[in-house]
Every structure is written in structure tokens, then in C-alpha cells.
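User: quick one
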Amino acid sequence: MTKRGAAKRDISLTVNGEVKTVSAYPMERLLDVLREQLGLTGTKEGCGEGECGACSVFMDGALVDSCLVPVLQAQGSSVVTIEGLAADARARAVQDAFLEYGGAQCGICTPGMILAAVHLLNAKSAPTMDDIREGLAGNLCRCTGYVQILEAVAAAAAKRGAAR
Amino acid sequence: MPGPATIGVSAPRKEGRDKVTGRARYIDDISLPDMLYGATVRSRIPRGKIKKISFGPGINWDEFVVVTAKDIPGKNCIALIESDQPCLADGVVNHPEEPILLLAHADRHALPKAVAAVEIEYEPQPPIFTIEESEQQKQIIWGADNVFKKYLIQKGDVDEVWANADFIVEGEYATGAQEQLYIETNGIIATYDAEHGLTVSGSLQCPYYVHKAMVPLFGLPENKVRVVQTETGGAFGGKEEYPSMIAGHAALLAMKSARPVKIIYDRLEDMVATTKRHPSRTRHRTAVRKDGKILGGEIDLVIDGGAYLTLSPVVLSRATIHAGGPYEWPAVRVQAKAVATNAPPHGAFRGFGAPQSLFAIERHMDRIAKVVGISPAEIRRVNFLKQGALTITDQTINENVELGKMLDRALEHADYHTKKTRFARENEHSPIKKGIGFAAFLHGAGFTGSGERYLASVVGVEGTKEGRVRVLVSSTEFGQGTNTILSQIAAETLGLPYEDAEVAQPDTFDVPNSGPTVASRTAMVVGKLVASAARGIERTLISVSLLGETHTAEEFRAACKKYAAEHGAFRSFTKYEPPANIFWDDQKYRGEAYAAYGWAIYVAQVSVDTRSYSVTVDDFVALQEVGRVLNPVLARGQIIGGVAQGIGFALYEKVEWREGRMQNGQMTNYIMPTSADVPEIRVFFEELGNTHGAYGAKGIGELPMDGPAPAIVNAIEDALGMPFDSVPLLPEDIFEAMNSAANRESEARAPAGVR
Amino acid sequence: MRSDPAEFNLVAPSDLQSALALMTDEGERWMPIAGGTDLMVQYAAGALRARRLMSIAGLAELRRINVAADEIQIGAGSTYTDLRRHETIAHEFPMLAQAAGWVGGIANQNRGTIGGNIVNASPAGDSLPSLLAYGAELILVSLNGERRVPYTTFHTGYKKIQLASNELIRAVCLPRRFIGYVQHARKVGTRNAQAVSKIALAALAQVDGGIVRDVRIALGSVAPVPMRLAETERILTGNLLDDSVVALAAKTAASEVKPIDDIRSTARYRAAVVGNLVVEFLERLRAEPAATEARNEALARWNALSADAAEGEILACCGSRAWARAMAARRPLADESALVGASDEICAGLRDADWLEAFRAHPRVGEKKAEGSASQQSAAWSAQEQSSAAAAGAESKAALAEGNREYERRFGRIFIVCAAGKTSGEILAILQKRLQNDDRSELREAVEQQRQIMQLRLRKWLRA
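Assistant: Done. Structure below.
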């Protein structure tokens, strides 16, 4: 007796470099499609209201909260999740720095945090501490108190600079 | 033992690579075939009788599994300390959001509408919501008098001190509820079949607590209940006792449907329905000599436990024992009680009563200083505990802790004296008022008194066929570093590299009960048992001459491989033995309350913007003596994370209550600090060792929660010249206080333009 | 997540016309959804009443930002990130750029749109006070055509706007007349980031010899709608800012607003803070005559130079000698407004050759030395403007150098872009796009960029 709003549609988008076609209701959240249909559980739900950033992904290069994106709006776009950063040198530098500086404790905010960090470093390769604070201000962490995360991002940035 | 040292080294987080790559799997990342999703129908009123439950139109109810209290095979309660909390309300509700009924369906999205369509008629009864209302006993909602528990500490002759006092200082201090706000909400998957029994997996701190609760709920034998902890995204005490409730719910649905059931709370449900920090009210009345020495005092402490007893007696216990702070009290009477209100039961949250009572005493010490006319630092020096002194429970301080010198060092790091003088000068001409303040405190690690003896923790270490060791504990990792620290300890003990040790997934079928992961006991108490069990493995190998008394890592590996090839993976277990000289009287609340205390001085520097009345913490110094730092990066991370939560507790995190229900149950409106709100936090460790702790460590997980709130509020008083005695302290509160003060001032003299 | 996706329909029309046609559709209205940062929150909470939604996020027609001589037209689909990155908005409408940075975190800014902020019509909308202060006008579009309405009367009540059910907001227009104004914006939120505003102020005014002119004070979160403080503005206009005027303005402001107690704050607090923020703004205005005087003094000094010296000095702002000569001839120039106005007029009459000369005074993006002659000051400013781009890696630098070469091969002159605040990645993207232009269009683009650089430099020069 539930009123059906729309049929499922085939929606194609590039995810981590591969074209995927999913059958989904257009208003399914990109977050749920990634996690449940594509098995990419690295992206997390922390609040469902675009406040905590645990669901962060890249959509056409821009950092977005996937809990706020209806999957239809991702049609034809290029989405990158934490899993898709495995080959990205900048992301690896951030991940290594997180391990060295204690940027991850319980780990639930970590994928989103790393995406935000990579997004920041893509735009500003030599960020100030204020830049880093601002770049990560949309990602909430309850465990670390942020300091070691900010230090990890700064270290990753410096390392990339030194490597040139 | 020869071999690379791992203690004191920042060994990388054991499960860290999985966490930074997104490979770590939390409960909502896991699905089982044929799985149903579960949801909870909850009370909309704070107190009353359930008259009728009907299933409204518009839902195909045949598609749903429905569970009520009648479906509970065993005892309808969540066993903890007492059995007053039902698993599902049966005819009566005592708080908003109390679980009444459960639904399950294969389509997760079908549930919210169904939950909303369950119609429940109530006969409301008059509720009570505050400590005062509970004390007044206009309504009795629990037991005979609304009182869950009382403690009394008496030392010396309090009634005699008033006559000799140069000053008598009184104060009342309050703290509000605080939500743990782990970024991963509560979640459980349960499966049941008649042959294997019940298995619950999920986000939790204490597998054996859940086990203990499931056994009577289902009337199952202990070996037919299995509890497994999955990767847990933050807990802070919020997943100490609550998971037993959600596990019971998922299990009931699994039993009824004969299918796996997953329940995941969304953020709103998690915030409004689960436990929070106990609100508190503490009254101090203190007799003081003119040099600042405390002659004695009365401390009256009440915490609000919500509708059911749950852990309130234990929270109260810790609050009571910490109520005197790190000071000598020649005479004291502490009267403490936990009372009932019609709110969801309050529960464990990092600090567990100590942040509440330490806030009170540290605010009170600054007040005493002002009255007496000496500095905040001087009042502490005159009263600090030291080696040989007795605490309020008459525990002798055996270690050479020099709090006065620690205070000196902390104030030095913070540039306290220079800044205090400079701020006083600069504040005259600036709309931004700066201030600096500190708090001195202690935190007892491990279970109180005879608690560890009662827990009788058991720890195992296993030698594997690969020649490596596995630590077998029910102690869980939820960010604080259990996996890493216990691996380090096992490796260090056996002279092995860190990579050769790991911690087994906490699964009650596989690991012994090493006690709950709470009370800052894991590194200290469980760690010591790990070292002991590791030595047990070693002795096994030595006893069959596969290993010499001293050995290299290579030799250990070879011996272990050889032995395991013959006998299979082999284990050694150790059980906690209480130290001989620990004496605790549960009736009089006297004796050695804790095996070890961590000591700390925290200094906060703040700015108050008098245009917006907002407070910013500009700098923070956290100096603590912790026995031994086992892993510097992890330890620093614990302190900073705790300080950030303390900043939230002090300045941002307010639960808006209406009729016992939290109104701001979203992250938009319950405010925790972002990266833009937390300053540089400078951490300093000191080490006096600890005979009762692994490699000299004391517990540190909760310590950092105690200091920030009083340090910050003391700093705000320094900035504004006016006292504040409750947290959270919001800009609106500061405005009201400054406005009233300004009104009083302008009434007292000719009108001037005042904002 | 409390909504069932199966109960909703979302379509994505491919262009504006189709979207507008859908809005005249029979049956339940298709609710437009852009970035989703408001609607998807309602949806997740199970509180979204609409069941039919129409995505306008991909409509290019709504995302253009056009800079005309007298106004800027900001496509309603522009995201907050678009606003923050736009040169003209950053320079001439800094309060709007600042407000765009108030919104949530970077992820919200990448998706939320200015049109969405307006249509959501929350009195706490971050961009709304600055739109009021700047005297915005909205271009509304339907199948019947376009109409233009002043923003001041757009909100008629709490969450009620003057938008017909078949209309979309196409653009937000801001008049380009605020150079030389003192602009002051402040948001007081529940924390420093990711915060709903408790009070937000956007205010601007001209101060002329200590007299306040054309003052606009707009507030958010203190009434059912974002509002201008008409009464407070009246008290201030045409007056000298002495203590009694400031006190009266603060008192009036606190009583003009109609705040409430809500989940975030209290009415009394909000009213008090409004008064305080107005005082903060007025104190800045009081300090302005000194700042203006300093700028006017700089100008006065330049006014007094010989023609040759004046021309030589101002050449650093634009390498066209014709322009510099004409500017020197316009002296004496009274203030910043007159200076910028004169420059704009002269620019309108410059020939292609003059522009090419100006271009040659710049080094290539990514290089230090210009081909033509350039003063030390000009070189220093070039370096400053290119500082974000300079922080690029070797690959980016190589790509930029190649891009520059390609451009020069195609157009026969150096690639000109106002580089301030842009990373090398962004500059490269702009370069690639402009390579597609025909000669005429490309010259016009380059000229506009040069004009922006000149404006930047003129302001810097006066403040040095």
C-alpha cells in the first residue's frame, strides 16, 4: 500500500575510475548506493545531516557530503571514495602521516578526514595551519581533539614539498 | 629480556593501516544473508501506564516481525547491578524514549513509517525531571524515596572545625548532562538458532557485560550465548552498558524471526534514547584558616541517574571519592546520593563522576582563595596531598608526588604569572577580555576498592603455529589503543618485535573475561596480566627445554613454532590477584580506594569577546604524572582528545531538555568542538612509576576529562572578574550574568550608557 | 535515514527551459533541488513533504556569473565555493564572499547555492544579510519570461517568499557601487565553523568627512525574515558619529530586531549582541576618516607631482603609457572613488595597442620577468598576485609554461589573467578554456582581466 514515487533507474557514474551502472531510486543517497550496492563501505554515515563529514567523497574533484547527494545528481560524474585513493601518492602521504602522528584513533572519521585533507592539499600544496583547520573544519572527530590530525596533514604537505 | 624495546616507543597503531585505508569494518559495514533490519518503538511520554497498543493503517503488518515484552523467554530486564530496568516496557513507562516494542523488516526503509504507525495510548502519570523535584519527593518514581544509592564518608570531627575557622566558605556547583557523541552510532547484528544459541556482534566496550545480560534475558546457558566485538567507532563509556539493551532487542527479533537481525541507530535516536553523563549538584561548606589551610568541610553531592539504577551507584562512588580533590582534609563529611528522574537513564561517560565532583572542588578552591585573600596557586600549595599524607578515605599516598612542583612546572609552561599580569592591564582597554586559570586534580585508575578483586579478571596469551603470540582479552579497542598497548606489552615481555604480537578479536567463545574496558584499567591492570600470561607461555616452552631462561626473538619463534606444531596453538592464563596490602571497607568507604592515582595540573588561557560573550580557549597546558608512558603518540592523543571533550563539556555541549526528552538530538544543534574551536594543546608527561601497573603505567584514559572545565571557568573568572559555577557555560549565560551585574551597578550610581 | 526513497521521484531536466516547463506541470509541484544541503537534511529526517523533486544542480544557465559595467549577475545555481573564488565578488562584495565562507564546511560550500539559500528562506541564511545590505535584485524566470524584483521585499514572512510556484530564481544582481565603502560583516554562531548563525550582521556605509552616508545595516537570525535596520539607518544617515549617536543607534538596533528564544539561543542575548555588533561597526566607521585621510593624502601627494613623475609612478598599476598619461592629466583626483572611476573611463577609450602594451608589462604566469619594461613595484605586485600559483609543483609549472607557449602561438601575445588567489591548477584550467576563444572574444577577456588587475593595484597603491 506504499505509494511508489518512481521506478528504479539505471544510473551510470564513474566510481574510483571505473564506470558503474547501478539500478537505484533517483532519491537514494549516494552514500547508500556506494555502501550497499557497490560494497564501498569505507565511506561512513555519522549523522545523516551533512554536519560530521564522515561520508565525504570527491564528486568531480570537489569534496562533498555523500549523505546529501541524491544518486541521480551523481549521474555522469566521477566519484572518488577512500578506496579509490589507494594509488594516489598524495593520499598515501597523508595516510602514512596519520599513522606516524596518531591522526586516527577509533578510525570512523578517518576516511572522510583523509579525503578532506587530500582535497585541501590538491588546492593548496603549502597550507598554513589555519588553512588546514579550515579545510578540515567540516569533519568532526570525537577522539583525537584534532591536534594530531592537523600535525599529520602539515607533515604530509611538507614531505611532498621536500620530495620535489 | 634481550630484544628490541617497544615500551615507551610510539609503535604504530596495530589496526591503523586498515583505518586509514577504509578497510576497517564496523558493524554497519557488515551484512549477513537473509538479514532483517530492526527498529524500536519508544515511549512518547515521560511516565505513565500503557493502556493500548494498536497497529495503525497504511502498513502491511504481515510483512513485519513484531516483538513485545511477552516474547521475552527469560527475565524481562537488562541485568547490570540491579534488575530494575526492563528490556521492553511492560505496561508501564518511566522515561521518554523507553523501548516498548520492536519491529523487523527486510527493507530498512520500510521501518520508520511502521514505527510511526504504531499507536500507543497512555495514561500519563506526573513525572519529575530535576534533582530538586526528586529530592522533594512530590512523586516517588523509584524505590521508596527516589534514591538509587547513598554514600557517606566521614573523617575526623567535622562539627568541631567551624568554631576555629577564620573563614567559612560556601558554594554550590552544577554540571549538566553530556552526550558521548561517538561518531559511529550504536549497532548490533544478532543471530539465533536452537542448536548454536545466540550470537551478537557489534559496537561495544564490554563483551562480557552483554553476555551477562543476555543469559537471564533468554534463559540460556552461558555457553549458548556468544558476544563478538566488531571495530568500534568511539565509545567513551557510551557503549559500556547500553549495548546490552540494543543487543537484547536485536536478539529478540532474531529469535522470533529465525533470521539475522541488524539494528543500527540513526543519530537522532542514538542521542535521545541512550545514556548521557549524570548531571550533578555539589554543595561545599568549608572551614579555612587564615593562611588558607582547610580545617575541614561538608560536601553534599547529588547526581541525577535518570529513570533506572543502571550504573549510578558506581558513578556516585567515584564522584564521592574524588570530591575532595588532591587535598588534605583533616576532617570531612561527604554525603552523596544518586536520585531518580523521569529521563532516559544516565550512564558511563569518560570520567564517570570524577569530572562532576572535581569541577566543584576546583571552582571552590578558587573561591576560597579569593575569600582568604591569597592566590589560587598558594591555596593549592597549602593543601596539596603529598607522600605520607592521607586522602579523604584515609588512603596513604605512598609515592613521592610533589604537586607543588608540578604546579610550578605547569604554570611555567603556560607563562601563567606573566600573562595574568599582562591580561589584567590589557583588558582595561580591549573589548576582548583575556584570562588564565588552572585546575589541580587526581584520577584513581582501575576499579574502586575491592572492585578489581570482584572482577577477578583472567587474561590469556597464545603461542601460534607461526611462532607469534596472540593476546586473549575481552578488553576492546575503540580508539584508545588497546590493541597496540597490549601487543607492545606482550612483545616487550617476551623480547619479541612488536610485529610478532597481536590482540585477538574479543569474542566470548575465544577469550576469557579480562573485565570491562572502563575505568582506565586496561593498560594498567589488564596490561600487567598480559605480561604475566606472556611469561606463562615462556615458562611452558622453558619447561619442555625448547627455550632457555634467556633467549633471542628468533629462538622464541622457533620454540613456539615447534611446540605449536606438536600441540596446536597453546595458551597460558593468568588471573588477577589483588595486592596483599590493599584494604578497603565498603561500608565505611574507607581505605585504599584505588591502586594508583594519576596527578595533573591543567592550565587554560581564554578570551571572552564582550560583544558576542563567546569564549575561545586560546592555549591549553596539560601536565600529568601517569606512572609510565607506554606509547608517546597514543598517550598524547588520549590527553588531547580528552581535553577537547572537556572543552565541549565546559563551553559548548548543552542538552536542551523538555519534559525529560532531549530536544537538540542532531549534530546541528548539539554542539561539539570542530577543528576551528580547539587550540594548540600542549601535553607534558611525568613518570613516577606504578608497582601495580604494567611496566609502571597508570591509567590515563579518563584523567584528561577532569581538568578542562574547572580550568576554563577559573580562567573566565580571571578574565571577567565574575564567578561562574556551572557548566556548560554558554555565551547566553555570560551575557545574563554581565547584564545583571551591569544593571546592579547602574542602579547603584548615576545612570551611564551601559550595554 | 527516515525516508523511503521508493516514495520519491527526482528528475533532472537537461536545460532551463525544460525545467521551467516542468514547473507548469499538472499535479503536485516539482520541487526544485540544487545542492541539497537543506532539502536532503529534511529528507533524511523524514520531514520533506514534497514527493516530486526536480534537480536544477546541473543547469549551466543558472551557474554563470556575469560581470557587467554597473552590476554583477550571479547565477542562482552558483555554489558558495564559486562565490569565494570569484575575483569581482572577492574585491567588490567582500561581505558576500565572507558569508560564503561561513557556510558549513568546505563540503557544504561545494554544493550549497546562493539561490538555495534565498529560497530556503531561513532567517539564518548566511548570505542573506549581505544581499540585503548590497541592495540585491533578483531575476526571476518562468516560461512567461523574466522579471526583476528588489530583494528587500522578497521575504514576506517566516519562510515565505514572493516566488510564484512556476518560477525559479535565475540570478542575483548586485550593483557595482561599493568601492570605497566601509564594509563590516560578522556572524555569531554556536561555534567557529559548521554553525547555524545566532546573529549575523552585514553593514556598509560611506564616511565623508566623518558624516555617515548611504548606511545599510542588515541582520539575520533576529526576526522571522532577514532584515534591514531601517530606523537605525535613519538615525545614522547624514550624522557625525559621536558617542551619543553611537549609543542611540545601538539602543535602537537592539529594539528594532524581533528575536526569539529557540533551540540555539535566547531573544535577550540576540538583542544585546545586535547592539554590540552595531557599535563594533560604527567604531570602524569612526576610524574610517583617518584611513580615508591616509588614502587621500597618498593621492594628494601624487596629485602634487610633476606630470612625468605622476605618470611614471602610476605606470606600475598598468603598463599602458596612454593610460598613465591620461590618469595624470585627470589630476587632481579627490579620493579612491574618483581614482577608480577615472581609470574605468579611460579604459573604455584605450586602443588595442595600448592594451597590448599593458600586457607586455606582466611576466608570464609562472615567470618573474616581463618582456616589456616594468618597474620594481610592478614586478613586486606581479609576484604577490602570483603567489598562490607559485606554490605549484614542477609538473604544474611545466604545464603552465607549455600552456603559456601554446597561448602565445595562438594569439601572438602573453596570456593575461588576474592571478590573485588562484592556484596554478585553476589558472591552467582558465587558460585551456580561453584557448578555445576567437580572437575578438579573447582580447575582450584579456582586457577585463587587465582591468581587474589594475583595480587591485590601484587600491593597494593607495594603502601602501
